[in-house]
Design a protein that fits this description.
Number of helices: 1
Distance between the termini: 48 Å
Structural class: mainly beta
Number of strands: 40
Shape: elongated
Helix content: under 10%
Largest sheet: 10 strands, mixed
Oligomer: single chain
């Protein structure tokens, strides 16, 4: 146990006004079931350490230039509960178990200039955390959670997430929380960063450059999802529509709503489809993200080339008689086919030959007649093209789809 405590109260005079600071120059240990409050600006100097196992209240500015951490198997929580703007700064990562933000002094109550790393819960009670203008970093580790995110309390700026656990990015802009940018990396050790933008993407990503079946692209908002590793991988993306920010002409007929993606390679907007959840006003799809992915909504008309296979990227076999099976449009034109489906861990769960839309399709049950859970599945579709001038070549198509059984 660390038992050295070196906290100094520093009195400073600036422009004729006297103010105090709490400065740590050594090692501080906050033990379990202990509460400690710091009612003046706190500075953790270089080569100094704070280990929190208890309940730490921070009422003013917070600056960390060394080690702030917690021990495993702890109930430690750090609470930022000021009555004026709080600046969170410093050159070193502040590592927290649980963290709480509750500052009602004004809408944007926290300025993030430093580095926050959370392993447990982040509780958003009041006060927006502005990261966009100050260059801070907010990182959530695998299995981290967010609670009570709202218009009144969220992160305005980029948020990073490590790992594969299900996670809703607590992001917003212009005083509005937009519960989207939900992204799950499908590979271990991935790190994604998401941000919501309440502005027209056309200024950077020309809306005139789009696939022919894309009619109207959202000109009010968009999301970016960045793959920090810069290695292309599949990412499960969920976006939400909101009448305050999403153009009315897009959400009057949500059945025509799709997620679209800006392709840097093609310099064009591409249709990514998606599974619509009308109750929660969300759409989910799978997309490859190498560096920076730009996503938003668009309305589409269905313009498929004659004979072209159109693979559904999501379906919901939940006995509501809507979207009950995984469909492949035009597959009946290619009867010599084989379908293999794998779960996210690479185990084969379903396979069949002569897949069709009448009596031989995937409806959420494995070949062992076991109902499969909601999730992302990988498919391999192999079919023989016997159309004129095709020379009977065998074609292979692969991809992902999302199945929701709830």
């Amino acid at each position: 146990m660390i038992n050295k405590k070196y906290l100094a109260i520093s009195l400073c005079c600036f422009a004729g006004q006297l103010f105090a600071q709490i400065v740590n120059t050594g090692d501080v240990f906050i033990s379990s079931y202990t509460q400690i409050g710091m009612e003046e600006d706190f500075i953790n100097l270089r080569r100094s350490t704070v280990i929190n196992e208890g309940e730490w209240f921070v009422y003013k500015d917070f600056e960390n230039n060394s080690v702030i951490d917690f021990e495993t198997d702890t109930q430690a929580v750090t609470k930022f509960v000021g009555d004026s703007i709080q600046v969170i700064s410093g050159q070193s990562w502040s590592i927290f178990n649980d963290i709480l933000f509750n500052n009602s002094s004004q809408d944007t109550a926290f300025y993030l200039k430093g580095l926050i790393d959370v392993y447990g819960q982040s509780i958003f009670e009041d006060g927006i955390i502005l990261n966009d203008d100050y260059g801070g970093n907010f990182l959530f580790e695998d299995e981290a959670e967010v609670v009570n995110v709202s218009d009144e309390s969220h992160i305005d700026g980029q948020v990073k997430k490590v790992g594969q656990s299900d996670f809703w990015y607590p992001i917003g802009d212009a005083g509005m929380y937009r519960p989207g940018g939900h992204a799950i990396a499908l590979n271990d050790g991935s790190q994604l960063a998401a941000k919501y933008w309440y502005q027209n993407s056309d200024e950077l990503f020309n809306h005139e450059n789009k696939e022919e079946n894309i009619v109207i692209i959202n000109d009010k908002e968009y999301w970016t999802v960045e793959n920090i590793s810069n290695q292309e991988e599949n990412v499960l993306i969920t976006l939400s529509w909101d009448s305050r920010t999403t153009p009315k002409e897009l959400i009057t007929e949500p059945e025509a709503l799709h997620i679209v993606y800006w392709s840097e390679e093609e310099q064009s907007w591409l249709d990514k489809g998606g599974l619509i959840d009308y109750e929660n006003r969300t759409i989910t799809t799978v997309a490859k993200v190498k560096e920076l992915g730009v996503f938003t909504f668009a309305s589409l008309t269905k313009v498929a080339k004659v004979g072209e296979l159109v693979v559904n990227t999501g379906f919901s076999p939940n006995n509501d008689n809507v979207n009950e099976y995984w469909s492949i449009e035009n597959i009946d034109q290619y009867p010599e086919n084989e379908v293999l489906i794998y779960n996210r861990w690479g185990h084969e769960v379903f396979s069949t030959e002569r897949y069709n839309t009448t009596d031989n399709f995937f409806n959420g049950y494995s070949n062992r007649n076991k109902r499969l859970p909601s999730g992302t599945y990988f498919y391999v579709l192999e079919y023989k093209n016997e159309k004129k001038d095709s020379k009977g070549e065998v074609l292979i198509q692969t991809g992902y789809f999302y199945m929701n059984t709830d």
